[in-house]
Write a structure and sequence with these properties.
heterodimer, A: alpha+beta, B: 195 residues, mainly alpha, Rna Polymerase Sigma Factor, Chain: A, 2 domains, 69% helix
Chain lengths: 43, 195
């Protein structure tokens, strides 16, 4: 089994997906008001 | 090389403080493990990308809300989120089975073209002509009832009104028409099927 695992090729997500996540993180804005949380996506 | 020595927990704290670069480092550091884990379960690159993305969206939202408290256990935590999303994906896909033609299974082995091919169409036309000729050989009263019932799709009540005979007489004529047709067919050994 160990051999099978070691032979598997390296799998990585597309750069596009990673960029999307990073942009999402930058755009996400959390506003807290009276113990309520509001999520806003700033384009 | 220097950033490789920064602990995950430090990067998480930096990210919560607003340093976006820390998230990029975390993703770069763990993307291969997380993506491979998801791919090993779903065996579909596009689905794996989607789940990877959803997992990090959850990570981001949890970190931003300050609800993350597993210091030093960043990777197992993301793995757990990914695992749950994989389960969600299989639950959803079980409810809605997807058919594609990429694998060995082909949808066309289940669905077939039900319209007749040229040969069968000719045979069908021939059979219909034969039946029509046999009907023409019937006595006039039986032929009339049969034509009204089968070709005009009238009820026996309508036939009795049209021909001025009782419903029972119309039914009887239909019965004799069919008996006579069968007799002729059997006698002459006429084949009236397309198969």
């Amino acid at each position: 089994m160990a051999k099978i695992y070691s032979n598997t090729q390296e799998l990585n997500p597309k750069q596009e997906t990673i960029n999307f996540i990073l942009n999402y993180s930058k755009a996400l804005s959390l506003v807290t008001y009276n113990e309520m949380e509001f999520e806003t996506i700033l384009n | 090389m220097k950033k490789e020595h920064v602990l995950d927990s430090t990067l998480v704290s930096q990210y919560i403080r607003g340093e976006e670069q820390a998230l990029e480092t975390l993703i770069t550091r763990h993307k291969q493990k997380i993506y491979s884990f998801i791919y090993s379960k779903v065996y579909d690159k596009d689905v794996a990308e989607d789940i990877f993305q959803d997992a990090f969206i959850k990570v981001i939202r949890t970190l931003r809300r300050g609800k993350y408290n597993e210091e030093g256990k960043f990777l197992p935590w993301v793995m757990r989120i990914s695992h749950n999303l994989v389960i969600d994906y299989f639950r959803k896909s079980n409810r809605m089975p997807k058919f594609d033609n990429t694998g060995e299974f082909s949808i066309f082995s289940v669905l077939s073209d039900t319209s007749l091919n040229a040969e069968k169409q000719i045979i069908k036309d021939q059979v219909q002509t034969d039946v029509r000729r046999l009907v023409d050989e019937l006595p006039e009263d039986q032929k009339e009832v049969l034509l009204l019932r089968i070709y005009n799709d009238m009820s026996f009540k309508e036939i009795s009104e049209r021909t001025g005979v009782s419903i029972n007489t119309a039914l009887g004529r239909m019965r004799y028409a069919l008996i006579n047709l069968r007799k002729v067919i059997d006698k002459n050994q006429i084949v009236l099927t397309t198969d």
